[in-house]
Amino acid sequence: MGRILWAPWRMEYVGAEPKGCIFCLMPQEARDEENLILERAALSFVSMNRFPYNTGHLMVAPYAHVPGLEELSDEAIKEIMGLLKKSLSCLNAALRPHGFNIGVNLGKAAGAGFDQHVHVHIVPRWSGDTNFMPVVADTKVLPEALKATYQKLRQSFAATPQARG
């Protein structure tokens, strides 16, 4: 029998299939903490990934429900880049990562989980943050609960001014 990793806090996510587009639904609700939304701007917003690749995994998404960057206005692209810049500053201040992976998955074939709503992933990285668990047990171990990371990042976002183009 294989090893068991006890993670009872993950139960709330088991079978949690969204009814619709999360990037459209989350910002319509007045539940930013529950939805892990850290920052709202006029055309886009920043949220934590509920199923992160690493601690502090963020996403920047427009409110517009479009599949690609080319459908966004120049103003939306500029705002998303400003939020990306602010997110990096906030992550550096709150979590002190050693680096970042930043990317956009366009289309299912490129790995997009929500391929009809473009969004940018920001994944903080630390030297040595990879270990045997993903290789041997197909399990990623995150050292901090989502709510604790949210509180740290929320404070950082509140203290950091919006980046200007």
Defining key terms:
165 residues, alpha+beta, HIT family, subunit A, 30% helix, globular
Structural summary, described in words:
- The protein is globular and about 35 Å long.
- It has 4 helices and 5 strands.
- The N and C termini lie far apart (55 Å).
- Helix content is 30%, strand content 15%.
- The protein has one domain: HIT family, subunit A, CATH 3.30.428.10.
- The chain has a 5-stranded antiparallel β-sheet with strand order 1-2-3-5-4, with helices on both faces.
Care to give the gist of this entry?
The chain has 165 residues and is α+β, with helices and mostly antiparallel strands.
User: Mind summarizing the main beta sheet?
Assistant: 5 strands, antiparallel
End-to-end distance: 55 Å
Order of helices and strands: HEEEHEEHH
Number of E strands: 5
Mean pLDDT figure: 84
Poorly predicted spans: 132-137
CATH class bucket: Alpha Beta
Query: How much helix is in the residues?
Result: 25-40%
Assign an overall shape.
Answer: globular
Could you name the CATH topology? HIT family, subunit A
Whole-number total of structural domains: 1
Q: Give me the CATH architecture, please.
A: 2-Layer Sandwich
Total of DSSP H or I helical runs spanning 4+ residues: 4
Q: What fraction of residues sit in β-strands? A: 15-25%
**Cα-atom Rg, whole angstroms?**
16 Å
Question: Any idea what the CATH superfamily is called?
Answer: HIT-like
Task: Output the strand order for the largest sheet.
Answer: 1-2-3-5-4
Structural class: alpha+beta
